[in-house]
Automatic annotation (TrEMBL):
SUPFAM superfamilies referenced in this protein's UniProt entry, alphabetically: ADC synthase
Membrane-spanning ranges: none
Segments forming domain Chorismate-utilising enzyme C-terminal: 168-422
Organism: Occultella aeris
Xref: InterPro entries: ADC_synthase (IPR005801), Chorismate_C (IPR015890), IsoChor_synthase (IPR004561)
Organism classification: Bacteria, Bacillati, Actinomycetota, Actinomycetes, Micrococcales
Entry keywords, A to Z: Isomerase
Protein name: isochorismate synthase
Amino acid sequence: MTDAAHLTASSTLVARTIAVPAQGLPDLLGLLPAPDAHGAAAWVRRGEGVVGWGEAARITTEGVDRFAAADAAWRSLTEHMVVRDEVGLPGTGAIAFGSFSFAPDSPAGGVLVVPQIVVGRRGDAAWVTTITAAADLVPPPTIAEIRARVAQPLPAPAVAYTEGALTRRQWRAQVAAVIDLIRGASVGKVVMARDVRADLDGPLDVRRLLSNLGRDYRSCWTFAVDGLVGATPELLVRRERGLISSRVLAGTIQRSGDDEADLARAASLARSSKDLEEHEFAVDSLTRSLAPFAASTNAPDAPFVLHLPNVMHLASDVTAVLAGPHAQMSSLAVAAALHPTAAVCGTPTDVAAQVIADHEQMDRGRYAGPVGWIGADGDGEWGIALRSAQVDADSRGLRLFAGCGIVAASDPADELAESDAKLEPMRSALSS
Ligand SMILES: C=C(O[C@H]1C=CC=C(C(=O)O)[C@@H]1O)C(=O)O
């Protein structure tokens, strides 16, 4: 293990995966046993994915090497693990859930959490994995036993919102300053984010929040890792046996609530030169970042419109194959190479990152960083932590985040409204 990673694990770990009947399996998010956001791990889309709880091991990293250090520590941990996997699908056997800061100098750093129990589902297959110290081996629990241990839901607390690092007016002024920089040709595109505080009058039950997100945002990846929760529409990378896929988003229009009007809005988004430019920056930056280690990269000529309940996005699904000496790169290593994309930072990356540091006036923490899971073979899925919030250590408050791609044709008031629309998934999941 590298010096940069800190590992807590009791001893040699044993991962055991057994098949369980997929038919009649309850909603994965409903199997999380406890309300606590910091003990829950989830990566679920359309009812499929993985949830986990308990902690068999934790790897923490920081700084510019936070991805490489975590990747090396995970490899070393899994090399010494005993794995008995009777299912053999992505997400079975040894698995860690991870989340990484957007900025290299953020104190939020990176984390990989290896749960003690994982339940997963993919198509007609479902499984339970236990990861325990060799000395503590017990048979994996049945789904009935897992259900029996699910604690009663907590009552929904009242939520009070306050402004974050910047007031709405201050943020708009910063966006205006960034537009001036772009028009002066200092930088092509910058993604400006803002935060909002939510204070609760009782502890959060993360299971309700996640279930609401999973129900309302079915085409998004609902996630929870180490207190970072959300439902992201954007997949940074999926690595499955050497095949890379990614869903790039950039370019947004808000929904009106009227289906017919929204169809007209979708058509205008697909024609909007401002949004198409913003999108092109994002796709170009991804394909450029993939080029050194991937071949057969396939990006569509034109984006499609992704309809979500709150907004519509221009979206492109890009695929590639890890090539030659890079065929063994893990999903986390690929995520590290792609982060930060123009969808969350801008173009050129270094200049945009500096503009963000100068103008946002906040630490993004793990918002807009990679979030997802990795298996022992390096396969995994990493989303970009958007439409998300960081839950306070005492579970009585959250920091919500949203950002907008700023280009020369942007308007500060429109961007503020767009950021409000992007906060909506977390707000409604908190209140319903
Ligand atoms: C930065 C965010 O969204 C990005 C992803 C999709 C569309 C975006 C946009 O149109 O501005 C943003 O680049 C966010 O939701 O916080």
